[in-house]
Amino acid sequence: MPKRIVIHAGFHKTGTTTIQKMLRHNNQLLRPDIQVVLRDGMVSLCEAARAYSVSKSALDLGMVQFETAKTLQKFTDFSGTLLLSSEDLSGHMPGRRDLKSYASAPKIFNAIYSAAAEVFSGVEVSFFFGTRASKPWLSSCYVQHLRATRITQSMQDYAISYIGSAQLDKVVDAARNAVPHAFVVSSALEDCSLFKLGPLDPLLNHLGVPQLTKGKFDILPPANTAPPQAKIDKLLALNRSDMSDTYLKQAKRALNQQVF
Is residue 145 domain-resident? Predict the structure, then answer.
């Protein structure tokens, strides 16, 4: 069984896409000691976590525990560190499906931990989170919603509506209370700007990856970065237009291909 399980559960817009692309690209450098499982390796678990964040039903929470166990049972013969990385393990991003916060996340973490303790009794489990200052985090979430949904609020109105969701350190504290027998670690995105590997660096340190191995990593550019303000303004105008959803998607796709 794994000697250690690390759950990198987000949060959204804290460098997670950059981290995951770097992990995928440099995966061979981590083997055989570290097995990386990204979203495409645990789709049902991620969907169960997202479903529970909306429904808050006992059935969906039970599915989180079931899908965690099902995912972990694939690695009974693995003896190294198992890393599960997806921001969807925290549920939906606040702002989706009328969610105002990560209020459901601690119960999701407890279900994940309970499944891990049941499948691999005695194994060390830790949770790793990326955090970010409130103002840039809200701004980044807003742009993500503009791209993916039909939100029509201005940035200022969105920030007022969702200011309560931006206290990520409090969610980390709630996670500690929810999984008292697990290690809970966090890293602020602002503290990673001088690291050669950016937000991936603290996670690799938590995994115990040697400096020599880290030095061999190919560095990829930051992923999913914010577009220029002119494009943000055009996205908002498109969302506020009366075009159908089908044409809106086409217009956004065309806008995304334009150089600003």
Answer: no
